[in-house]
Write a structure and sequence with these properties.
alpha+beta; DNA polymerase, domain 1; 3 domains; four-stranded antiparallel beta sheet; 18 helices; 43% helix; DNA-binding
Length: 415
Amino acid sequence: MPATATILHADLDAFYASVEQLLDPSLRGKAIAVGGGVVLAASYEAKAFGVRGGMPGRRAKELCPQLIFVGGHFKEYQRLGDAAIKVLDDFTPLVERISIDEAFADVAGTEHLFGTPAVIAETVRRRVRAELGLPISVGVARTKHLAKIASQVAKPDGLCVVDPATELEFLHDLPVELMWGVGPATKARLAAEGVVTIGQLANTPGRSLEKLLGPAASEKLRALAWNTDPRAIVTDRRARSAGAQSALGKKPVEERVFRPTLRHLADRIGSRLRAKSLSGRTVTVRVRFADLSAVTRATTLDAPIAATTTLAEIAEELVRGVLADHPEERFISLLAIAVSHLERQPALQLEFSLGFDDEARRPGTRTGASRWLADRAMDKVRARFGWEAVGYGSVVLEAARSVPDGFRELAEKDL
DNA sequence: TCTGGGGTCCTAGGACCC
DNA sequence: TCTGGGGTCCTAGGACCC
C-alpha cells in the first residue's frame, strides 16, 4: 500500500450563501437562504435551524423565522467558483472539477516544489480566503473517496488530513451516509440490518450485502469501506447527456400546456448541443403527475439529431404516448427532456439524411436541412443579442420561471 | 403546505443475434 | 424441433449527487 496521502478534495463551504455574505457584509453572521420559492443554498447560520438546499422556501421560513432570502448573483458564483479551482491549478495539472464549488487534485510528486500535501492544502485554504474572501474546506487522503469524506469531516472552514497508517480506524467509526452512493434509501436498507457505521458495513459478509443492495452497489461500497477504490483523477470529463426540465405546478393535461413547454425545453437543449457541434440519438421524456409519480419514455433513433424542431416533435410524440397510457391522470407537475448517446459530428451533415425529412415534408413544414439552417440563424442572433432576442413565439413568455435562468446555466455540465 | 434543475449510474426484463 | 448459453442493445424505473 502506497503510504502517502496525495489526493486533495477541496469544497467551498455553503458556497452560494458565502458569496452573498461576501458581497453584502450586512448579511454576515446571519441566517440567509439563496432562492425564494425553493432554497438553493443556505448559510451555516441557517443550516443550524435545519434549513437545507432543495427545501421549499415556506418550510425554511417556518424552521427559521429570521431567515433572510437573497436573490442569486449567478455570474459571481461562476466567477468565484472558477477562481477557487484555479488556485488548485497552481499546484498540479491533475485537477478534476466535480461541480461549481468542488474539485479533486492529486499533488503527488510536487512536494519538493510546494511542500507536503498537508502544507499545500493549508496554502490553498489560506489563498482562497485571502484572494477571494471565501471559506473552503479541504480533505487530504490516499484515495479520492477518503479525501472527499475528509473534507466533509473538516467542514466548516477546516482541514482534515487522513494518515494512511490509521485510515481504516478513521473511516470505520463514521456513519454510512458519508459514503458516496449512500442516500436515504440505502441508508434505511442498511439500518434495517443493523448496519450504521462504515466499519459495520466493511465487516458485513459480501453475500448478504449483495442480497441487500445488488452486486454492483455492494462491491462498490465494500471497496469504499476498505478504502481500496483505485479511482484516478480524471481531468477532462464530458457530459454523456444533456437535458432540461420545467416544473409546472399543477397544469391540466392539454396540448396547449405541454406543446409550448416541450418546445422551450427542446430549444434549450438543441442550442446547447449545436453550440458544441454535438447531436444525440436517444431522446428521453419524463412526465411527472400531480401526485409526483413520474413516468419516463425513451426512443433511440438511427441517426443523431440536434435540431430544435425535430427534438420537440419526437418529445411530443413520446409525451403523447405517456398520456395515452395514463388516461386517469389529469394534471402534470413537471416535464423533462434529455438527449443521450451524444456524438460529436461535423454539424453540416446533421439531419440531412434523416427519415424525419419525409415526415416533415408535409405542406408548410420544413425539412431537416432547412430546420438546421433556421436553428443556426437563431443561434447566431442569440449569440449577439442574447437568448431572449428570438424564440419560438409564445414560449418565451409562457415559461413560468420557477428558477432563474442563471441558476440553470450554473448547473449545466460542459458538453 | 407535497419540492428545482442538471446530471450519473445501476437493474431487470425483453428483443435479437450467434 | 427442442434445449442451452452468451453477448449486446434498448427501455423503464430508481437511487444518488451537486
